[in-house]
Amino acid sequence: MRKNRYILFALLLWPLSLAAQGTDAEGLFYDEPMAERIGYLPKEVEGTSSLFWMDGRLWTANDHGALRLYAIDTLTAEVDSVVDLGVRVYDLEEVTLDSLYLYFGDFGDNKGVRSDLRILRLSRRDFADGRFLFDTIHFHYPERTSALARNFDCEAFVAGTDSLYLFTKQWVSRNSVCYALPKVPGTYAAERRFTLYSDGLVTGACYLPHLRTLVLIGYSILVRPFVYVIDGFDGDDFSTGRHRRTDLANPIATQTEGVATLDGRHLLLSHETLTLRLITRKASLLRLDLSGLPEESNIR
After folding, report:
1. 9: part of which helix (H) or strand (E)?
2. Is the dihedral of CA 273, 289, 157, 130 positive or negative?
3. Cβ neighbours of residue 125 closer than 8 Å, sequence gap 6 or more
């Protein structure tokens, strides 16, 4: 919701964004997948910034204000129930979880000015019991400089075996760097792991450790949504394995923010409401089938 200038510029480049084919590692064309709308999200979740499965239900949260979790009906995109967690967030951009905890990433920093980056942690047992007692992981990026501060925005992270893995949203370089943090409360310097050549702004992530699959989403300089899939890696080393990226055939200015999947192939996506002079895109829940994605790595 704070990115309107960037997206308005992209609208001027509309004619350049109409291609609906990609090329695989051998230069062969394939049809870019199209995400289909399940339904428009209610106004109360028009700031959707994340999607995740928990206990058989799909959940989302807004990116600022009162921290509430909303259970979403996957057939209608309607809100089934709401849980108010009793705290406020400045720029919540992702929620992830493991078997024991929920992690809330209050670390969005589009302007590159924040010094209060944090992840709130809540026991899943406490959540189920209606007790919302948080602890906090504070962190900073040791490589951050004032000149490149906007390369250290972040909207995506996942919980691994022993660490949390953050994927930066680099407004300057338009790629992403993976950083690692401990999963326990404290104050830390994020540990740089590797560069992800996303050719776009990463905004959401979903990790399936049992399938060795990580799915990232985002949008390009033309605000065209894309999906980046990594699978077959060793342990939690996402720099290994097969890396595949594809633009989606959806219109530009589709500001994808959340992704959830149970099998790594059939995805649910959310995009937030976007209002500009020229267009209005209402927040929506989408479904996407990645069956047609190239079989080989296509990141050069």
Report:
1. helix 4-11
2. positive
3. 100
Structure tokens at 78: 């309607």
- How many domains does the chain fold into? 1
Q: What is the CATH number of the domain that holds 238?
A: 2.120.10
Distance, CA of 125 to CA of 189 (rounded, Å):
29
Prediction pTM value: 0.91
Give a yes or no: residue 300 inside a domain.
no
**Cβ atoms within 10 Å of 37's Cβ, excluding its own:** 14
| Containing structural domain, residue 215 | 4-289
C-alpha 25, offset from chain centre: 25
pLDDT tens string 207-266: 999 999 999 999 988 788 999 999 999 999 999 999 999 999 998 778 899 999 999 999
Q: 3-class secondary structure for 156-179?
A: EEEECCCEEEEEEECCCCCCEEEE
Assess if residue 295 is contained within a domain. no
Instruction: Write the secondary structure of 44-96 as one string of H (helix), E (strand) and C (coil).
Output: HHCCEEEEEEECCEEEEEECCEEEEEEEECCCCCCEEEEEEEEEEECCEEEEE
Instruction: Name the residue with tokens 């080393």.
Output: 237
